[in-house]
Amino acid sequence: MSIFDIEHCDVPEVHKDLLLKVQSRLPDEDALYDLAELFKVFGDSTRIRILFALFDQELCVCDLAAALNMTQSAISHQLRLLKQSRLVRSRRDGKQVFYALADDHVHSIIDQGMEHVLED
């Protein structure tokens, strides 16, 4: 598909009322940048697998590594990124650290994304 295959207007006309409405609703550039960075984190299937594993219960790195058939080092690396993005939280219990989804928003984002992917 080339750029010429995309449907476009035959007459270049800007609808000023629509333009003003869109411009009034756009968040500032910093917020849009932060949102784009958040979605980049979701762009890795390993991180998505970790988030799915944490849907219903908190797990330690050892549990996640075993469940996802990965090394603890690889899981730890991805958890660091997920934690920096505030998508997971951790809780220390003695010598173990358990991870969970940071809040219900993360669950909702994954649910809605999966719903979108699976719809006909």
Give a structural overview.
With 120 residues, the chain is mainly α. The chain has one domain (13-118): Arc Repressor Mutant, subunit A (Orthogonal Bundle), CATH 1.10.10.10. It is 57% helix and 12% strand. It contains six helices and three strands. It has helices at 16-25, 29-41, 45-53, 61-68, 72-84, 104-118; strands at 59-60, 88-93, 96-101. It has a three-stranded antiparallel beta sheet with strand order 1-3-2. α4 packs across α5. It is elongated, with a radius of gyration of 20 Å.
Protein traits:
single chain, Arc Repressor Mutant, subunit A, 6 helices, mainly alpha, 120 residues
Shape: elongated
Strands in their spatial order, largest beta sheet: 1-3-2
**What is the CATH topology assignment?**
Arc Repressor Mutant, subunit A
CATH top level is Mainly Alpha
Instruction: Supply Rg.
Output: 20 Å
Can you say what the CATH homologous superfamily is?
Answer: Winged helix-like DNA-binding domain superfamily/Winged helix DNA-binding domain
What would you say about this model in short?
The chain has about 120 residues and is mainly alpha-helical. The protein has 6 helices and 3 strands. The longest helix has 15 residues, at about 105-120.
